[in-house]
C-alpha cells in the first residue's frame, strides 16, 4: 500500500473522527469573506452547551479580560473570529469519544499531553511581540492529530508500532513510516486540509517536528509553527524519562527559533505546570497535579547521583531530597503569591499600579481597534496635595489617598480600569466611551470628591481634584499612538490646573 492509497483509506475510513456540526459549519463560514460577526455568533449560539463553555473560558484567567462577557455576541466581538473558532474547535476535539478497543493507544494520556502542548504553545507565543495568538492554542492542541487518526483507522498496525517504540527498537516517527508508509505529521495535515482547516492550523500539524522545513512566507504563521515545535519539547520535559535532555534542547531552540531571552524562558518554565492545571478545569479535562519543571529536574539529577551510591546512602539522599523539595515548594508558592500582588497592585491604595495600567491600556487599544469603538482616558490629580501633606502630615495624606481611590472606584463601572498613575495622580480607562460620556463621568467623579468628607477618628478633611480627559477612536486615526493618547490626557489635566483646579477639561486637538 503506497502513500496515496493509505491516505484515501484514511479519509474514507468509518473510524475517522468527524467534527461536530457547529465546528464543521464554523470552518466553512469563516472561510467566506462576506461572513459577519453576527453570522458567527448566531451559529455558535445554536449549541447552548458549547456557548456556555465559551463564556466560561472567556471570563476566566485564560484571557483575563477586565470586563464581564455575558453573551456570545459580546464574546465574538471582543475575542474576534479566529479566537472563537479556536475555542469551538478545542471544545469539539476534546469532547470526541474514545473508541473501546484493545489498542495500546492511550487516548486519555493523548488528550492530556495535547492540552499541555496547547498551553505551552500559548505561553511561548505570548512572549513574542506582535505575534498572532488567537489560534495558537488549537494549533498546539492538534499538532499530533495524526497519531489519533492512525490509532483510530489502523488500530492493529498502530499497536504494533507502539510496541516497537516501547521496546526501544525504533523511535515513534520511524515506526509509523515502517508500518504505514507515512508518519502522523503528514496524515494529520492531509486530514486537516480535507476538513477545510486554514493554513495557520495545517502547517503547525505538518511541520511540528521539523519547523525548519516550513517554507511559509507569512512570518506570523512561521512563528506559530516554531512555537508549536517548542511546545512539544516543553511537554517532553514532563512526560519523558529524559527531562534534562529536553530542558536543554528547549532552552537552545527557544533562543534560536524565536529569539527568546533567558527571562522569558524561565517564566514559561515556571508557569507551565500550573497553567496546564488551570486549562484542565476550563476545558473539562481532569489533569492530575503535576510537578514543576524545577522539581522534575531536581529529581532527575538525584536519580543520576543515586547510581553511584550504596543502599544506605540512597535512603539518606532520598529523605534529604524530599525534605528539601518540600521546603522549596512552600517557599516558591509564597514568593509567587507575593510577586503576583507586587506586579499588579499598588501597595498603598489597593488599586492597580502604573505597570498594570500600561498593559491594560495596550489591551484596550487593541480591542478598540478590533471593535472600531471609542476609548476614553482620564488623568486625575489631587489639588494642592503637597501643601496638604505639609499641613497635616504624610500619614493623613496616605489616608486621603486610600479613601480617594475608594471613592473613585465606587463611582465607575465594573469594567472600567482604575490605577494609581504615580504620587497623587490616578488614571481611569473607559472602554467604549465617547468624549461626551467621559465628560459626564468625569464631572460625576469630580463632584463626588468635592462633596466627600474624609473622616479619620475625630478629624475631617476635604480635598478637590482636577481632571484631564482624552478620547480617541484608534481604528480611524492613522496617527494614533498610546504615548500620544496619554499625552493628550496629560495636557488636558494641566489645562484644568491652569483654569483654577477642581474642574474637568477635555483635550481638543
Question: What does this 3D model show about the protein?
Answer:
The chain has 4 domains: 3-17 and 102-293, Orthogonal Bundle (Hypothetical protein af1432); 19-95, no CATH class; 309-343; 354-506, Reverse transcriptase/Diguanylate cyclase domain (Alpha-Beta Plaits), CATH 3.30.70. The strands form 2 sheets. Strands 2-3-1-6-7 form a 5-stranded mixed sheet, with helices on both faces. The chain has 23 helices and 7 strands. The chain has helices at residues 3-11, 21-30, 37-45, 48-58, 72-79, 81-94, 107-125, 136-141, 145-153, 155-166, 172-180, 184-194, 199-207, 219-239, 243-258, 262-282, 293-306, 311-344, 354-371, 385-392, 394-410, 435-451, 482-498, and strands at 375-382, 417-422, 425-431, 454-456, 459-461, 465-472, 504-506. 63% of the residues lie in helices and 7% in strands. The protein is globular. Residues 165-171 and 173-181 have low confidence and may be disordered. The chain is an alpha+beta fold and 509 residues long.
Helix content: 55-70%
Quickly count the helices: 23
Task: Label the overall shape.
Answer: globular
Q: State the domain count.
A: 4
**On the 0-100 scale, what is the average pLDDT?**
86
Q: Ranges with pLDDT <50 over ≥5 residues?
A: 165-171, 173-181
Structural class: alpha+beta
Order of helices and strands: HHHHHHHHHHHHHHHHHHHEHHEEHEEEHE
| Strand order in the sheet with the most strands | 2-3-1-6-7
Largest sheet, in brief, is: 5 strands, mixed
Secondary structure: number of strands? 7
For the record, the CATH class of the largest domain is Mainly Alpha
Mind telling me the C-alpha Rg?
28 Å
Strand content: 5-15%
| Superfamily (CATH H level) name of the largest domain | Hypothetical protein af1432
Spatial gap, N to C terminus: 72 Å
CATH architecture of the largest domain: Orthogonal Bundle
Q: Give me the CATH fold name of the largest domain.
A: Hypothetical protein af1432
Amino acid at each position: 500500500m503506497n502513500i496515496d492509497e493509505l491516505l484515501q483509506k484514511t479519509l474514507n475510513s468509518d473510524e475517522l473522527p468527524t467534527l461536530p456540526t457547529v465546528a464543521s459549519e464554523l470552518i466553512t463560514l469563516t472561510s467566506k469573506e462576506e461572513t459577519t460577526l453576527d453570522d458567527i455568533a448566531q451559529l455558535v449560539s445554536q449549541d447552548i452547551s458549547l456557548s456556555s463553555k465559551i463564556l466560561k473560558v472567556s471570563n476566566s484567567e485564560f484571557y483575563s479580560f477586565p470586563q464581564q462577557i455575558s453573551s456570545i455576541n459580546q464574546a465574538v466581538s471582543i475575542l474576534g473570529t479566529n479566537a472563537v473558532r479556536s475555542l469551538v474547535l478545542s471544545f469539539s476535539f476534546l469532547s470526541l469519544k474514545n473508541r473501546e478497543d484493545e489498542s495500546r493507544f492511550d487516548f486519555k494520556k493523548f488528550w492530556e499531553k495535547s492540552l499541555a502542548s496547547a498551553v505551552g504553545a500559548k505561553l511561548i507565543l505570548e512572549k513574542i511581540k506582535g505575534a498572532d495568538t488567537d489560534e495558537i492554542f488549537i494549533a498546539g492542541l492538534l499538532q499530533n492529530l495524526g497519531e489519533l487518526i492512525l490509532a483510530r483507522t489502523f488500530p492493529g498496525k498502530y499497536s504494533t508500532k507502539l510496541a516497537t517504540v516501547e521496546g526501544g527498537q525504533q523511535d515513534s516517527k520511524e515506526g509509523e513510516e515502517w508500518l504505514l508508509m507515512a508518519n502522523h505529521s503528514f496524515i494529520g495535515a492531509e486530514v486537516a486540509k480535507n476538513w477545510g482547516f486554514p493554513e495557520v492550523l495545517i502547517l503547525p500539524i505538518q511541520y511540528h517536528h521539523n519547523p525548519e522545513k516550513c517554507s511559509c512566507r507569512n512570518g506570523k504563521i512561521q512563528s506559530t509553527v516554531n512555537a508549536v515545535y517548542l511546545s512539544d519539547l516543553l511537554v517532553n520535559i514532563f512526560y519523558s524519562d529524559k527531562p534534562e535532555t529536553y530542558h536543554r534542547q528547549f532552552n537552545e531552540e527557544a533562543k534560536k527559533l524565536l529569539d527568546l531571552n533567558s527571562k522569558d524562558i524561565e517564566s514559561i518554565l515556571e508557569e507551565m505546570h500550573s497553567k496546564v492545571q488551570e486549562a484542565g478545569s476550563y476545558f473539562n479535562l481532569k489533569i492530575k497535579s503535576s510537578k514543576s519543571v524545577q522539581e522534575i529536574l531536581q529529581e532527575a539529577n538525584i536519580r543520576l547521583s543515586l547510581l553511584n551510591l550504596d543502599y544506605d546512602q540512597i535512603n539518606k539522599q532520598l529523605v534529604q531530597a524530599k525534605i528539601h523539595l518540600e521546603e522549596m515548594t512552600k517557599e516558591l508558592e509564597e514568593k509567587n503569591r507575593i510577586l503576583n500582588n507586587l506586579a499588579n497592585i499598588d501597595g498603598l491604595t489597593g488599586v492597580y499600579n502604573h505597570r498594570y495600567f500600561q498593559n491594560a491600556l495596550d489591551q484596550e487599544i487593541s480591542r478598540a481597534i478590533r471593535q472600531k469603538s471609542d476609548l476614553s482616558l482620564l488623568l486625575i490629580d489631587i489639588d494642592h496635595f503637597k501643601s496638604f501633606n505639609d499641613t497635616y502630615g504624610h500619614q493623613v495624606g496616605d489616608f486621603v489617598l486610600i479613601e480617594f481611590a475608594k471613592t473613585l472606584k465606587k463611582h465607575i463601572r465594573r469594567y472600567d480600569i482604575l490605577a494609581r498613575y504615580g504620587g497623587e495622580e490616578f488614571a481611569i480607562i473607559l472602554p467604549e466611551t465617547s468624549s461626551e460620556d467621559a465628560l459626564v463621568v468625569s464631572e460625576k467623579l469630580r463632584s463626588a470628591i468635592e462633596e466627600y468628607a474624609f473622616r479619620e477618628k475625630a478629624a475631617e478633611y476635604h480635598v478637590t481634584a482636577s481632571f484631564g480627559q482624552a478620547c480617541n477612536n484608534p481604528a480611524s486615526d492613522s496617527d494614533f499612538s498610546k504615548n500620544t493618547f496619554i499625552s493628550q490626557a496629560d495636557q488636558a489635566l494641566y489645562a484644568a490646573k491652569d483654569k483654577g483646579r477642581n474642574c474637568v477639561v477635555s483635550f481638543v486637538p
